[in-house]
Amino acid sequence: MTVVREEDFVTSISDALQYISYYHSPDFIHALHDAYRREESPAARDAMAQILVNSRLCAEGHRPICQDTGIVVVFLRVGMAVRWAGSQSVAAMVNEGVRRAYLDPDNPLRASVVDDPAGARRNTGDNTPAVIHTELVPGDQVEVTIAAKGGGSENKARFAVLNPSDSVADWVLKTVPTLGAGWCPPGILGIGIGGTPEKAMLLAKQSLMAPIDIQALRQRGAHNSAEELRLALYDRVNALGIGAQGLGGLTTVLDVKVLDHPTHAASLPVALIPNCAATRHIHFSLDGSGPAALPVPKLEDWPQVALAGTAQARRVDLDTVTPEEARGWRPGETLLLSGRLLTGRDAAHKRLTDLLERGEPLPADVGLRGRFIYYVGPVAAVRDEAVGPAGPTTATRMDKFTDLLLEKTGLLGMIGKAERGPAAIESIARHGAVYLIATGGAAYLVSKAIRSARVIAFPELGMEAIHEFVVEDMPVTVAVDSRGESVHETGPAQWRARIAGIPIKQE
Questions:
Q1: Which of 240, 378, 440, 503 could form a disulfide bond with 390, CB atoms 3.0-4.6 angstroms apart?
Q2: Around 254, how many Cα atoms within 13 Å sit in the side-chain half-sphere?
Q3: CA–CA separation, 236 vs 229, rounded Å?
């Protein structure tokens, strides 16, 4: 009988979460590099380059790939011949491992989990509890698959119960364009089919834990209907032209995964869950001999990729920029920002709008007129860092606050990731503001442009407090210009037409 010690199990969970916070799996790196070499869209190619360079920096520096270090999801297959040596429940041991990993002083991970989700939404402070799925199986080992799923991709999960005669492929192709770019493509789509509603969702999540192997599948050919669907969806989703970061391009997905389960004759439950460019998961087994030994990648596994030159980029001084200057920026243009930049995301926006609606002054240091606000919740700094990884969060969550802030404060611009909704775009155009994007999945790279950081308002909000960053040559792309033209609308449309072989009309 195998005896698994509590400390070995807890240590393995903690080590695995630290490991996936800064190591991409080799299959992802190779797939993304292949897509980068094939990509013809300059904007999408540059976004992929940033993700690849960021990944190598994180592997070297042991710092998080993304500032959103995720909610922990654990799949356990516990052999029925295993005996546990310890005093805690299995769930308590998992959560102790999560706690240790997220509070590690050498590489602290951002705590994103909140309790009382429909009420006070208090941050638990250590990213516990995890979401745990346990299965008892024959055998004498404990198999663990662990993932850290960021909110940007999790928020794009979709579910439907189709009629048995409906096409799953058609539903997926109709659904993917509605996800926007907040899930940070290029990534992986997980599809769960059958069972009951909760089973389909679980299948979709489980499917994402497998290695990227779509090219190998294409070479050998499909052996069943699930594999046929994978191949069909891989080509048809990429033909949508959404591209990296939603900028338009040849590659939107690096793989499509499908798991299915027998279902009721009257039902066809289907779930879709994406994995973002910061895909993080690992599998290991415990046999009673000690903690898991995780393979240490070699830096040679990462390709040497050069970022696009800055010679053509427009340099912007955030301390002197004017609305007249911003009106000259066009969608798809690269800017390099230097100067003072404020931060703020969901909780801070709610505080600011509540003050404005009550006619009360904003905090003393939060002067927004002519300024830019960056939608970010950074990781805590270590050693000589000004700030930890500080990539953008999904901008659409701030759409409902945008018009009031633009109207009442004179805010000039916003920086986030992914597209803006119609109402926000209309407001941006009406107020002559702009919206810029930083690359999602390149958080550590972005942080290298931040020279100093200080909290200036709402410190009790933790990572959601308002900071003032001083940045130097922070790379961003114009996503919505002052006229309301959005690159997330024009880019994918152009590349969808190009992929379909339709000539693009030149202006």
A1: 378
A2: 28
A3: 10
Query: Is-above-0.90 flag for pTM?
Result: yes
pLDDT, one tens digit per residue, over 103-148 is 999 999 999 999 999 999 999 999 999 999 999 999 999 999 999 9
CA neighbor of 256 nearest in space, from 240, 247, 267, 264: 240
Q: Would you call the peptide bond into 138 cis, given omega within 30 degrees of 0 as the criterion?
A: no
DSSP letter, residue 322: -
Show the domains of the chain with their CATH numbers.
Answer: 151-275 (no CATH), 314-492 (3.20.130.10)
460 SS3 class: helix
How many angstroms separate the CA atoms of 172 and 272, rounded?
A: 8
Q: What is the mean pLDDT of residues 348-356?
A: 97
Contact between 487 and 431 under an 8 Å Cβ cutoff? The reply is no
Enclosing H/E stretch for 285: strand 281-286
Angle at 183 between CA 178 and CA 188, to 5 degrees: 100
H/E stretch holding 340 reads strand 334-343
Provide CB contacts within 8 A for 342, sequence distance 6+. Answer: 366, 368, 371, 372, 373, 374, 456, 466, 467, 468, 469
CB-CB contact of 434 with 481 (8 Å): yes
CA distance 341 to 456: 12
Instruction: Report residue 493 as tokens.
Output: 């449309």
The single residue listed with the structure tokens 């745990």 is 132
Q: Which residues contact 67 (CB under 8 A, 6 or more apart)?
A: 110, 376, 377, 378, 379, 388, 389, 390, 391, 393, 443
Going by their DSSP bridges, the two strands 334-343 and 372-374 should be labelled as parallel
- Give 117's contacts (C-beta < 8 A, 6+ positions apart): none
Paired residues of 353 in beta bridges = none
Amino acid (1-letter code) at residue 469:
F
Tally the C-alpha atoms within 13 A of residue 410's C-alpha that lie toward its C-beta.
9
Contact between 366 and 341 (Cβ < 8 Å): no
Find residue 256's DSSP bridge partners: 189
The mean pLDDT value for 456-470 works out to 95
